[in-house]
Amino acid sequence: MQVPVHVLNQNTKRDQGRKAQLGNITAAKAVADIIRTTLGPRSMLKMLLDASGGIVLTNDGNAILREIDVSHPAAKSMIQLSRTQDEEVGDGTTSVIILAGELLSVAEPFLQKNLHPTVICKGYAKALEDALAIIEKMSFPIDTNDRAQMLNVVNSCIATKFTQRFGNLMADLALDAVQTVTISHGDGSQKEIDIKNYAKIEKIPGGAIEECRVLKGVMFNKDVVVPGRMRRKIANPRILLLDCPLEYKKGENQTNVEITKEEDWAALLKAEEEQIKKMCDQIIAFKPDLVVTEKGLSDLAAHFLTKAGVSAIRRLRKTDNNRIARAAGATIVHRTEEIREADIGTGAGLFEVVKIGDEFFSFVVDCAQPKACTVMLRGASRDILNEVERNLVDAMGVARNIVMDPRLVPGGGACEMAVSRSLADKATAMAGVEAWPYKAAGHAMEVIPRTLAQNCGINVIRTLTKLRARHADEPLGPWGLNGETGEVTDMRALGVWEPLAVKQQTVKTAIDSAKMLLRIDDIVSGISRRQDAPKKKGGADPEGDGDNADGDKQLPE
Fold first, then answer.
1. Taking a C-beta distance cutoff of 8 angstroms, is the pair 206, 357 a contact?
2. Would residue 281 show up in a list of annotated catalytic residues for this protein?
3. Nearest CA to 224 among 421, 361, 425?
4. Which of 314, 78, 64, 58 is nearest to 163 (CA)?
């Protein structure tokens, strides 16, 4: 009798073949089921409690999955999808998870019939190619200068969110913010829209939600260094931005100075004082009204600047400093010796410090050409503000996508149903086994209109049959579901549109991830040696484990 050979560690857990594949599909379906009810205008909210006892109340797919802690590797991979979707296009985070879950679900019968995963993946790859071509064919251009049309598109994309009850407010804010930070290069065809770095969202609890606005400039939570003596309101300020400290130079490491005479101590203090005075004189020579530095500013420097009538702000974040530079047309200077007249920002119309609640906020507003902005959000509570912020980030993502690629497709499940119908027709002409997974991928697309119908609480089978009939009569037609009533409606008349970039990214991400998860046939999970090895007496690490050489170790007293 042959003795069994153990290659892997005894503590290692291993799932192989069919068991691993079906386990992955079950995990993916479980993740999709968590957020299935959050799709569409009639969506439900989820309340999540985090480890510190805080509450997250949202129907944003990415925000929900970000808070959930899962252990299954396939489920973790699925959660990563919504994060990718959010970073790429900012919308469609729920759709991509539901679609990926459904694509894996329809692959299950093929695996049980011993169809090889590679064949299924091949069918899915062909379906993806054709689906993208069909979506492209359904798209039509939009004029990005037509504000009413743009508002309509942004509104239809965030109609599923909490902020829909405030009307056009979020769409207006998102559009204004995106148009402010848009920079055109060359002939205007190349555009740069960096909403992450240059459109800051500042949440201030209190006030009414209608008080939210996009500033023509920036604001930050800072006051001037000497509030009583420095000016808090300056019209047309000359702004100087620094990222060097305005205080005496400190040694890189611990510096010891040995002094034998008292005169030397006085000379040392005088040298420090003269150095600070020299720096301040170099600044004052350019007659700035406001000096902003990212580092420290000593009391002596504040005294010299106050005497010259210059207001100063210290220890500002690097990101805020970059925004002021973009808004006011200034350049951040690294040393006071290198200041030039061109570095002074003169683009701002007003600098003002305002007290809101218990805190002071500095405003640099009324800029001539602000290429950076702050969106000021007001609301009753921190929870509401967090949800409004999530909705606004999605809305800005949609507005950015339209400006970058001004093409739209019909929403309300019309696009998915048209793709499903076209793939089913094409599958009949295909030869070979790949036709089955190809057709199944088309069938999986119907999950979006089906989920919309379920969330409306109407008869799903009857509604989907009506929708299929409409698409059979009019291929690639704009017929979809009205998310509020659940009726089959012409999306052109209803005005529900989605950016082409979002739809393409959703389909690409969902099918690619389904292909990747189907190709997994072995899951090995084990305990690493470091965790498994017995600790020596006294709490020291086991021998040979020098990875944590700098870790804090408790020494015996």
1. yes
2. no
3. 361
4. 58
Q: How many CB atoms lie within 10 A of CB 114?
A: 7
Q: With 0.85 as the threshold, say if the pTM is over it.
A: no
Which two three-digit tokens encode residue 242?
Answer: 């620094």
Letter for the amino acid at 374? Answer: T
Does 84 participate in catalysis according to the annotation? no
- 168: phi then psi, degrees, rounded to nearest 5: -85, 5
Q: Which of 490, 413, 406 is nearest to 160 (CA)?
A: 413
Rounded distance between C-alpha atoms, residue 182 and residue 73, angstroms:
39
Structure tokens at 233: 């309101």
Q: Is 201 helix (H, G, I), strand (E, B) or coil?
A: strand
Catalytic residue among 58, 94, 489, 509: 94
User: How many Cβ atoms from other residues are within 10 Å of residue 48's Cβ?
Assistant: 14
Confidence of residue 477 (pLDDT cuts 50, 70, 90): confident
Residues 6+ away with beta carbon under 8 Å from 118: 519
Helix boundaries (H) for 338-459: 382-404, 414-427, 435-444, 447-456
For residue 375, which phi and psi values (nearest 5 degrees)? -100, 115
In the three-class reduction of DSSP (H, G, I as helix; E, B as strand; rest coil), residue 160 is classed as coil
Nearest CA among 509, 411, 346 for reference residue 152:
411
Q: Which of 38, 58, 93, 506 is catalytic?
A: 93
Residue 60 annotated among the catalytic residues of the structure: yes
Collapsed DSSP state (helix, strand, coil) of residue 382: helix
Active-site residue identified among 91, 176, 343, 394: 394
* Helix, strand or coil, per DSSP, at residue 111: helix
Strand partners, 145: none
Active site residue 506: no
**What are the backbone angles phi and psi of residue 347, rounded to the nearest 5°?**
-80, -10
Strands (E), 152-302: 182-185, 190-193, 199-205, 213-214, 218-220, 233-235, 239-242, 290-293
Q: How many of the other CB atoms lie within 10 Å of CB of 117?
A: 18
pLDDT (tens digit, 9 = 90+) per residue, 369-414?
A: 888 999 999 888 888 888 888 888 888 888 888 888 889 898 888 9
The β-bridge relationship of strands 290-293 and 311-313 is parallel
38, 58, 60, 172: the catalytic one is 60
Distance CA 401, CA 411 (A): 15
